[in-house]
Amino acid sequence: MRSDITDAGSLREAARGVEAVVHAALMHGEGAEEAERTVVGAVLDVLRGTGRTFVYNSGVWVMGDTPEDVDLADEETMINPPPMFTWRPAVEDWVLGAAREEGVRTFVVRSGIAYGRTHGGTVGELVDSARERGASRYVVPPEGENNSWTLVHLDDLGDFYIRLLEGEAPGGTLLLAVSDDPHRAREIAEAASRAGGAGGRVEDWPLDEALEKLGDHAYALALDQRLSNEKARRLLGWTPSASSVFEKLEDGSYS
After folding, report:
1. Residue 212: other Cβ atoms inside 10 A
2. All domains of the chain, ordered by start, with CATH?
3. Residue 149, burial from CB neighbour count under 10 angstroms (0-12, 13-18, 19+)
4. Is the dihedral of CA 80, 202, 120, 20 positive or negative?
5. What integer is the mean pLDDT of 160-189?
6. Model confidence at 59, in pLDDT bands (50, 70, 90)?
7. Tally of CB atoms within 10 A around 108
8. CA distances from 210 to 45, 57, 131, 138 (A)
């Protein structure tokens, strides 16, 4: 059935009788916090006391920049959410706490920037800007262009969820779902430029200018994130194996 993340009634109906609920929908801007709280409240209302599984996909942007003195941030690293996500840690805590207090097998997943088998998303937007502007425009943080992104291929993310749902990981667990290596945002933009026919040309988009166009979403694109998947490997036996973002941009997936 079709539902709506702002409609608690339809969400409760969709959650009834299922063994697991995975919430991976995404909403930005005004109303996002209210919508997320609607989803979590409705799902927990239905699953309370059943021992069934609820997976809440939060996303890595909630972590903010990786501290300079940290090689790869993990689930234990202190977070510093950008303005658009200052409310999300409380929702994460609500979901994780339901494993102790409400009898639901809950997980919070912070997935990386998704790519592969799609023309949309952050990577697709870089390709689109190359086609439209003759250069791939990417947001540059105030301190310079050396920020990194940590991504995840959609196929690897699907495998991650299967392992989480079918495995024996304990409820109340937070996990990062990211590929093996972070990559410089500029290098991704250059590859996206080639995929978009702009020959690798890129255009720096200063954060203060991007904020005028994109609002708080620009802060997320300017983050410097170097993240570890060691816990997911150990707990789930998960090994990301899909093609890298550079290979997907080169093989015509975004053409």
Report:
1. 8
2. 8-250 (3.40.50.720)
3. buried
4. negative
5. 96
6. very high
7. 24
8. 40, 26, 19, 9
